[in-house]
Amino acid sequence: MILFWLYRKWRASRQRQEGDESPSRRLGRPATLPSERTPLVLHQARYDLVAFGRNGQARFFTLILPILFLVIFVSVFGNHRVGPMQVKASTYYVPGISALAVIAGSFVNLVISITTQRESGILKRRRATPVPAWVLIAARTLTAIAVSLGVMLAVLLIGRFGYGVRLPSSTIPGVIVTAVVGAFTFCCLAYAIVTVIHSADAAQPMVQAIMLPLYFISGVFIPNVNLPGWLKDVAMVFPVQHLADGLHHAFDPATTGSGIVWSDLGVLLLWAAAGLAVALTRFNWTPAVAAS
Amino acid sequence: METGGNNREHSASHDGSSSSNVRATSGRLSALVCRAAGWESWVVEASAQQSAGSSPAARSEVAISVRGLRKRYGSFEAVAGIEVEVRHGEIFAFLGPNGAGKTTTVEILEGFRSRSAGEVSVLGVDPAHADGSWRNRVGAVLQESAPEPGLTVRECLRLYAGYYEAPREIEETIALVGLEEKADSLAERLSGGQRRRLDVALALIGDPELIFLDEPTTGFDPSARRAAWSVIAGLRSLGKTVFLTTHYMDEAENLADRIAVIAAGRIVAEGTPQTLGGRETMSARITFTLPAGVADSELPAELQARSGKANGRLTVESERPLPDLGLLAQWARSRNLDLPDLDVRRPSLEDVYLRLTEDNVQADGR
Asked: Do A31 and B150 count as a contact with CB atoms less than 8 A apart?
């Protein structure tokens, strides 16, 4: 049922894309009239999104996996009261898995696709054209943020209609702002981490090796109240904890106000800045193993 | 067994692509060479282009100019001081064995690699400072690049068309590389030869003045190579300047107006396919086997002096093959001998190329 629903959602997004195309078609030959073209960033983002939609592996790791985790964790913990706020398991896991969904849509998605495209010479070929580097990066980042929000929306809808988890309407801005900042941060970190991955085969194991331990200690998979103090301190350093915490807070029925936790956003943005700094100095468009 | 003249004619006309027992001018000879391999149309096209290219003064402008180019990786010098000049509208082949420095050079010209020394100008710009407006005028087919994942042929071209100021018509470009039937197929499902044609289409979509092709047919089967060649030859009629690297001698001979041979980072020869390495002035080789019981010493002294023996066959180096053949024929007839495996051969471009690159490797090894 979930698969069917996701498929329909995907079809709908494709139809929307095709709908976008028709006005430019009516203008005649869009390819030869730069002034009438869509902005280059959106042009690139559109094709990045089409390519993402047709990639079965990307769909599995970014769309299906978070939903599987949600179903499994809620099923295992049932209606136990969990977490520091002693909320229902489903109320705990919808925001936690939303954090995972955001990370899957941004970090996991980007690291794998950028490494693959760099190592197979696709990025290099694009750089042989006049397209500015920032356009390629901005478009790919926009796509990743859009995918992140889409996957999170899927998780929220399943939570709402499958498990009756209601989002307090006052905290909707908090959820959106936290998710967007989180997706942006993990995009920056993706651009940083690809500088140390030297083959497409290594990308998938590498992201899982980084993320799985963080999911466990950051309250995504299990409530971290039971963790020893030092492990909590370790988790506090990393961005996963702050994204999950921000979303948990917004979903907490006891939360009043916008649901934005500024300290969590601050830490996320610090990580974004660090990732950006590494990416700007180390990012490479050409394959790590240079052809002779 | 082989007594009639028929056999001899048969062997003379069909023995190898570069066989000829006619002393000819270099142009006529190359025409014969090409016709033997079925390349007449190319020769006609090439000579038409050359005459058209030489008349308007504007066309003499230089597209690529390289002076004293060097590239060092640590103590290894991949490019050791080369000079290259490519004119507008010309197909220029950079020919050399693997590891000779071809890709290093072309990547410096494309603005992907820095250089250690020398001056480089591509369309009047130093590619080390390449900007968007320069890239609008230059197309590149890289040595290794996978197709865009998840996009069809037409979508790939639409995506790339968006990068350029004044792109070519998409359907026309698809037709130019012969991918009309594959326009809606995913690019990653194309065969190797079709992918390469898509690469050419992507390099062409911005309607550039200059196109770099880095080993465009490496690993292709013969029919895919022919198809790629016809696409590249088609660039000539669009008036594009083409800088081609290859390690296939026949590819350079087939496509290029001019060839530079690079070996161990140095240019060892430069010229047209007809004149490369002094090919047009090289002596021919007359080769035959003497019938059993006839000693080498029985040959006319004039021929014997220039002969050598290898694998039972005699080879006579001949500056003027026709008089030498006359002498040989007279001698054979007077003794009622036949020379059924008689072969007259001028050095092929491949012979010249192998000699040039081998000499250099030996020189380098010392």
From this structure: no
Q: Is B142 on the interface with A (CB under 8 A)?
A: yes
Domain count within chain A: 1
pLDDT per position as a tens digit, B118-159:
999 999 999 999 889 999 999 999 987 889 999 999 999 999
**Would you say residue A215 lies in a domain?**
yes
| Blockwise average pLDDT, block size 10, chain B, 366 residues | 41 39 38 40 41 41 92 91 93 90 92 93 92 92 88 96 93 91 94 89 93 88 85 88 91 91 90 80 83 84 84 85 89 88 81 74 46
> At the topology level of CATH, where does B45-278 sit?
Rossmann fold (3.40.50)
- Please tell me which of the candidates A37, A51, A124 has its beta carbon nearest to residue B142: A124
B161/A47 touch (CB, cutoff 8 Å), yes or no: no
Cβ of B167 within 8 Å of Cβ of A32? The answer is yes
Indicate where chain B has its CATH 3.40.50.300 domain(s).
Answer: 45-278
| Share of chain B residues as helix, strand and coil, in percent rounded to the nearest 5 | 45, 25, 35
Residue B139 in tokens: 């197309």
Model ipTM value: 0.80
Q: Is residue A290 part of a domain?
A: no
Query: Is A31 within a domain?
Result: no
B120 touches chain A (CB under 8 A): no
Determine the structural domain holding residue A135 and report its residue range: 37-282
Looking at the complex, report in whole angstroms how far the Cα of residue B234 sits from the nearest Cα belonging to chain A.
22
Q: What is the pTM of this model?
A: 0.75
Residue A157 included in any domain: yes
Residues of A in contact with B150 (CB under 8 A): 50-55
For residue A277, pLDDT beyond 90: yes
Of A50, A55, A132, the CB nearest to B155: A50
Interface of A with B (CB under 8 A): 29, 31-32, 34, 37, 40, 43-44, 47, 50-55, 116-117, 120-122, 124-132, 286-287, 291-292
Nearest to A55 among B140, B150, B202 (CB): B150
Distances in whole angstroms, Cα of residue A30 to Cα of each of A35, B170, B205, B236: 9, 11, 14, 27
What's the CA angle centered on A228, arms A222 and A230, to 5 degrees? 115
